[in-house]
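Support reply, case 0932

Customer input (verbatim):
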Amino acid sequence: MPQYLNEKQQLAGLDPRERGFSRPVEFEQVEGGCRARLRYETTHTETAARETPGAALEELIRTLQGQGYTQLRTQLSVREGTYLGSQEPWIEYPDPDRPPEQSSWWFGRLLRCFQRRGEERHG
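Our regenerated output:
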């Protein structure tokens, strides 16, 4: 049995509605390596097969960030079947650069609409 099946990571952060969460990440052995899986409320996110648990975890983080999750961090909570509690440090994953807020995007679009109308009248 691969060692990573005896390891567990805790993933914490903010969901797209900016609610805090903390859930375990499951690693599953599959053809071609391992896959990381997160179950949170009605969302089930899993990665493709990756060579290492670290690569699968990084893909999971990028996927979640693409779905609007922020302030993500992980902590090794079980190693070789032994519960570690909070002995291990948290690893933080910086949020990717995001486009301007949706509300300001709509406001900018609204302004451009009025600017075009004004140009049509005076042009």
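We compared this against your earlier run and they match. Two observations from our side: The CA atoms of residues 36 and 55 lie 9 Å apart. The first strand starts at residue 8 and ends at 14. Please reopen the case if you see a mismatch on your end.
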